[in-house]
Amino acid sequence: MRIGELSRRTGVAVPTIKYYVREGLLPAGRLTSPNQASYDTLHERRLRLIRALLDVGGLSVAAIREVLDAVDDDGRPVHEMLGEAADRLTPRHAGEADEDMEAARATAAEFITRRGWHVYTDGPHAESLAGAIAALRRLGHGSFVELLDAYADAAEKVAAADLAWVARNVKREEVVECAVIGTVLGDAVLSSLRRLAHVDASARAYGDGDGDRVLGVADAAGHAGDGVAPGARAGE
Questions:
Q1: What is the pLDDT of residues 125-153, one digit of tens each?
Q2: 140 Ramachandran zone, left/alpha/beta (phi>0; psi -120 to 50)
Q3: Which end of the chain, N or C, is more open, meaning fewer C-beta atoms within 10 Å of its C-beta?
Q4: Environment class of residue 144 by beta-carbon count within 10 Å: exposed (0-12), middle (13-18) or buried (19+)?
């Protein structure tokens, strides 16, 4: 296909496609004449992966190049390739190091070691966890760490489900694309499910016993219909 058709099929503007080629993110097309190049489904797949990394993952062009280098390195194990993508998707702790942060790093490292997780205790994911623990301590909620094991138990089940879904794809690019989209959008799904479960748990624990549900924030503000959960009205 020509670059115009590639643009129509992917929704990426022609100048943007040419920019990706110049930056080395997308292989150049096969020249069919001095001024014409031909592209194929592999270019289309790579272009969609670039857009997923950019639009869904929020990665910079430089970070995308590093991820794609890992994808193209057939000698690199899939675990390392996925790790390269995951590392780029993890928010970095931007605050200054202080006593709270140093203590949180120690807590995170001890926790990871105790769980027997095969991850670096000084890697970006551990640093992200430490940043959250430090923030909790600064707010006077350091005891929240008592929930870490319960969270970890749930996270292990989610991770197993995620990898089972990713494993359905055998091509390296498809595996990375699933991992990126699954991580970013999966976080959004997991967060939504957690909030829904909070509302249900609160209703069961603190409801008035007549079947009424505790409303979520959006419901109470009148942004989600009449704010009554299914089955919450009398007689339903």
A1: 899 899 999 999 999 999 999 999 999 99
A2: left
A3: C
A4: middle
